[in-house]
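Handout for the seminar on molecular recognition.
Each group receives one record of this type.
Step one: identify the two inputs.
Step two: read the structure output and locate the region that could contact nicotinamide-adenine-dinucleotide.
Step three: write two sentences on what you found, then compare them with the reference statements printed after the record.
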Amino acid sequence: MKNITLNTGAEMPMLGLGVYKIDDTSSIHTAFEAGYRSIDTASAYDNEELVGAAIRESGLPRDELFITTKLSNPGQREGRAGVELDDSLNRLGLDYVDLYLMHWPVPETYADSWRAMEKLFKKGRAKAIGVSNFQSRHITEIKKQWTVVPAINQVELHPRLTQKPLLWISKMETIALQSWSPLGGGRDFAFKEQLFAHETIESLAKKYGKTPAQIILRWNIDLGIVTIPKSATPERIRENIDIFDFSLTQAEVTAIDMLNQNHRTGPDPDTFHNDF
Ligand code: NAD
């Protein structure tokens, strides 16, 4: 496993398990056994209790784990950042999270929510704080008053949505970029299949003796992007972490960059409706 050093100085694994729609502990146990130490959940996923149970059952020392959860949109609208984090910690059975993210930039509240999250960070209940689904303009807006720079911006990112402008602004501001739906997500099976079958991805898979998913995940690592693929299938969970014994050349990274079509599989942060 490779780590990234966040702007707080903390180390975060470059690859973790996304647990959206994971509803039993066995996938998390498989991940821990395969070497995963980072788990990405959210209060909106309704599975923090399950993540907490898996952590306790694993017997792994707390300081070896990196646990992320997120402030929900209703929590933001009601100004409940502090209470929500307490509730998340209770459900997880933890004293702190390693990373607390603002799930979406709810237009009327995200700037206030960032100030509330800064307070939580200063109290130590979140060892790092960050944002999710922020466009450059959202970062520019909170920058006007921030006293803490977000450690992470977690956004939809895959070879069809390479997010280069966000990658540049993130590097300038010392914000690490993290990819959700790194494999194209679970919403559109055909989209993922077409991406995996693209000749650029297929030829690299053949060259390195890896699968298309492994090539795409390694492309994230070689770009310095933290990633959190989701799977409930034991073989795939193990496959997705088995990417630290090879790397792509700069030309190969660029060849995958060229697949960009600015294609989103999930909601657009500029137009998402505040109904989740
Ligand atoms: P993903 O790109 O991780 O894709 C998941 C799909 O790919 C599933 O159908 C899975 O079965 C399949 N898959 C996984 N490994 C595979 C492999 N090796 N070969 C073939 N297929 C494979 O998409 P995702 O679940 O949308 O995103 C991952 C995580 O990102 C989520 O679990 C969640 O933690 C996070 N997320 C965050 C947000 C946000 O708004 N912040 C939004 C969506 C997801």
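Reference statements: Strands lie at 3-5, 11-13, 17-18, 38-40, 66-71, 99-102, 129-132, 152-156, 176-180, 226-227. The chain has a mean pLDDT of 96.
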